[in-house]
Specification:
about 450 residues; mainly alpha; Growth Hormone, Chain: A; 21 helices; about 0% strand; globular
Length: about 450
C-alpha cells in the first residue's frame, strides 16, 4: 500500500517531464512554420494597393486572385491529412513547405490577371494539407485534455505572422532595387524562408513518440501508453471507416461553420490594409503598422480561449462565444460617421475574436472520431470550409466594385460569423476521454 503513492508520484513526474519536453520541442517549430505559411498566403493583402496600381487590376480581379488560393487548397486537404496519419508527417510537411515557398516567389513574377490567378491557385494547392496535417500530427503527441492548449500554441502563430508581416511588408514595400516594383520583392523575399525551412523540417521533426530519441525511455512509454488508451476509448463508439466521416452530421455542421468563419475571417484579413488606406485615409506605412494591432490582440485571444477551453474541458461554447464576439465588433467597426480611433479599436477587438475560436473548434473533430475518421474529417472540414476563404475576399472585392461601402461589406462578414456560431451550436456536445472511459468501465 505504501508503494502506490510513490508509483503515482513517479508517473506524475514522468508525465510532467514528457509533456514539457514535447511542448518545447514541437510547438515552437510548428509555430514558426505556420508563421511563414500564413505570411505567404496573406502577404497579398499588403501588396494590394501597390500591385493593383502597377498592373491595373481592379478590386474584383484582386479579390478573385486573392481568394482563388483556397480553390487550389481544396484539392489535397483530405489526402494530405491521411498521408500524415498513415505515412510520415515530417516528409509530407517538408514537401509542402518547399513547394509553397517556390509558389510564393512565382506570385512575384506575374504580369496579367490570368497569371495572378494561376500562381495563387498553385500556391493554395502547394500549401494544401499543411494545417490539417499539423492538426493530425498534434494528436500523435498531445492527449485530448492538452490539445486545445497545444492548438492555441500553434494557431497563435497566425496572428503573430500578420503582426510581424504588417510592418515588415510595409518596409519591403519601400524598397527601390534595380527598378523592380516593390510588391514583387515582397513575394520573392518572403518566399525564400519557406524553402529553407522545408529542408530543416526533414531533420528536425519526429513522426511518433516511439521514434523520439530526445525523450527518455520512460517518457516515450508514458506518451505512447496515454495516447493508446485514448484510441482504445474511442474505438468502441467511433470505429467507422474514414470515408464515412463525410456523412457524419457533426462533421457536416463543422464544415459549414468553418466555411462561414473563413468567409468572414479572410474577407476581414485580406481587405484590412485596403480598408485602413482607402476607407480610413491612412498612408501606406501608417496603415501597415495599424493593421498589426488586431493581430497583436489576436495572440491574446487565441491563448486565453485555448487555456480556458482546456481548463473547463469545454469546446463548443468557447468557439461560439468567439464567433459572436467577432460579429458584434465587426458591426461596431462598420458604424458610419464614427472617429478613426473608434473604428481602429473595434477592428482590434475583432482581430482578438477572429482567431480565438480556432483552438476549441479544432478540438471538436479529433475528440469525436476515431483515428482515420478524425484525419479525414479534419481534411474535409478544412478543405471545404476554406472555400469560404475564396468567397470572402472575392465577395468583398465584387461588392466594392459594385459601389457598396466598406461598412456595408463588413456587415455581410458579421452575418457570416453569426452563421458560424449557430451552426457550431448544433454540434452535439462530446464528453472528454476520461468521462468516456469511466462510462465504458461502468
Amino acid at each position: 500500500m505504501a508503494r502506490e503513492p510513490m508509483h503515482s508520484a513517479i508517473s506524475t513526474d514522468t508525465s510532467a517531464r514528457a509533456r514539457r519536453k514535447i511542448g518545447r520541442r514541437i510547438l515552437p517549430f510548428l509555430a514558426l512554420l505556420y508563421i511563414v505559411a500564413y505570411l505567404d498566403r496573406a502577404n497579398v493583402a499588403f501588396a494590394n494597393v501597390s500591385m493593383r496600381a502597377n498592373l491595373g487590376f481592379n478590386e474584383a480581379v484582386f479579390g478573385f486572385g486573392a481568394g482563388i488560393f483556397f480553390a487550389g487548397y481544396f484539392l489535397l486537404e483530405i489526402p494530405g491529412a491521411l498521408i500524415v496519419e498513415r505515412w510520415s508527417a515530417r516528409r509530407w510537411l517538408a514537401r509542402i513547405i518547399v513547394s509553397w515557398g517556390l509558389c510564393t516567389i512565382l506570385v512575384g513574377l506575374i504580369n496579367t490577371p490570368k497569371q495572378f490567378y494561376t500562381a495563387r491557385f498553385l500556391l493554395g494547392a502547394a500549401e494544401a494539407g499543411f494545417f490539417p496535417g499539423v492538426i493530425v500530427y498534434l494528436t500523435h503527441w498531445f492527449r485530448e485534455q492538452d490539445r486545445a492548449r497545444a492548438l492555441a500554441g500553434f494557431v497563435s502563430a497566425a496572428p503573430v505572422a500578420l503582426l510581424i508581416g504588417a510592418p515588415l511588408s510595409g518596409l519591403i514595400l519601400q524598397l527601390d532595387w534595380w527598378g523592380i516594383p516593390e510588391w514583387r520583392w515582397l513575394f520573392i523575399l518572403q518566399g525564400i524562408p519557406a524553402v529553407i525551412l522545408g529542408v530543416v523540417t526533414l531533420f528536425y521533426l519526429t513522426d511518433h513518440p516511439r521514434d523520439a530519441r530526445w525523450l527518455r525511455p520512460d517518457e516515450r512509454a508514458w506518451v505512447s501508453d496515454a495516447l493508446e488508451q485514448e484510441r482504445e476509448a474511442k474505438r468502441g463508439s467511433h470505429s467507422q471507416r474514414w470515408w464515412h466521416a463525410a456523412l457524419n452530421r457533426d462533421v457536416l455542421l463543422l464544415t459549414a461553420a468553418h466555411f462561414s468563419a473563413n468567409l468572414a475571417g479572410y474577407g476581414f484579413i485580406l481587405w484590412l490594409p485596403h480598408t485602413l488606406q482607402v476607407g480610413a485615409g491612412f498612408g501606406l506605412m501608417v496603415s501597415s503598422f495599424i493593421a498589426a494591432l488586431p493581430f497583436a490582440a489576436a495572440i491574446f485571444g487565441v491563448v486565453l480561449n485555448g487555456r480556458s477551453s482546456d481548463r473547463r474541458r469545454e469546446r463548443k461554447g468557447h468557439a461560439c462565444a468567439a464567433f459572436v464576439a467577432a460579429a458584434l465588433f465587426l458591426i461596431v467597426a462598420a458604424v458610419p460617421g464614427q472617429s478613426a480611433r473608434a473604428t481602429v479599436g473595434a477592428l482590434t477587438l475583432t482581430g482578438a475574436a477572429a482567431f480565438a475560436w480556432i483552438p476549441p473548434f479544432w478540438s471538436l473533430p479529433t475528440a469525436t472520431l476515431g483515428k482515420s475518421s478524425a484525419a479525414a474529417a479534419v481534411g474535409l472540414i478544412n478543405s471545404v470550409g476554406n472555400l469560404g476563404g475564396f468567397v470572402g475576399p472575392f465577395g468583398v472585392g465584387w461588392l466594392l466594385t459594385m459601389g457598396w461601402t466598406p461598412g456595408a461589406a463588413t456587415g455581410i462578414l458579421a452575418l457570416a460569423y453569426l452563421a458560424a456560431a449557430v451552426l457550431t451550436g448544433f454540434v452535439r456536445a462530446v464528453p472528454n476521454t476520461a468521462e468516456r472511459t469511466s462510462h465504458a468501465a461502468s
